[in-house]
Amino acid sequence: MLGKFFKKPDPSLGDRVPPGQHLTEGFPVLTYGPTPEIDLETWQLKIWGLSSPLVLSWSELMALPQQEFTADFHCVTRWSRLDAKWTGIKITDLLNLVKLDPQATHVLQHCYGGYTTNLPLSDFVRDENFLAFRLFDEPLAPEHGGPLRSVVPHLYAWKSAKWINGLEFLAQDEAGFWERNGYHHRGDPWSEERYS
Ligand SMILES: Nc1nc2c(c(=O)[nH]1)N[C@H]1C(S)=C(S)[C@@H](COP(=O)(O)O)O[C@H]1N2
Ligand SMILES: [Mo]
Q: What percent of the chain clears pLDDT 90, i.e. is strictly above it?
């Protein structure tokens, strides 16, 4: 069964598959707990903490510049999906709307359902990071984090927060859900920062 869905990396793709990962051509769903039900009419994204505060409605979010992104996705449970095609909004474009306090060094991403995951700003405020609302030309399905999730391609996928609804800027690192439960604080797949 396993062999049907997970392949040994093709040598030509080898430099794109981190150590200890197997390729999948599908897109598995990995969620701790139930998928929250979210109504776009009441949906909000809030920014607070060491930043000027901001609350965006769905229509305000959709007014920001939209782009397509192709990104690889590496789950710590050892599957990798290459070349996922997303549509979204760059994190840097979103953050142009606020002013960060110079003391801010970290961000805690918050989600509908209570999941959280933390990042240093150097990993969060990067050109290739985005908030996604479409996957493979379809609206992002609820089980994959729709209506909106973050995607942080250079780190393990638990840093890509599904159903994101908040960014809390902090002057210190604060562990998120999996980080409190034994996952690594940073999660670089290339150095196999899986568990701490
Ligand atoms: N809100 C929330 N975000 C989450 C998770 C979760 O359980 N809840 N799981 C994480 C993990 S471990 C992975 S591998 C990816 C899986 O995303 P997918 O289900 O779209 O493949 O989402 C991450 N983001
Ligand atoms: Mo994961």
A: 92
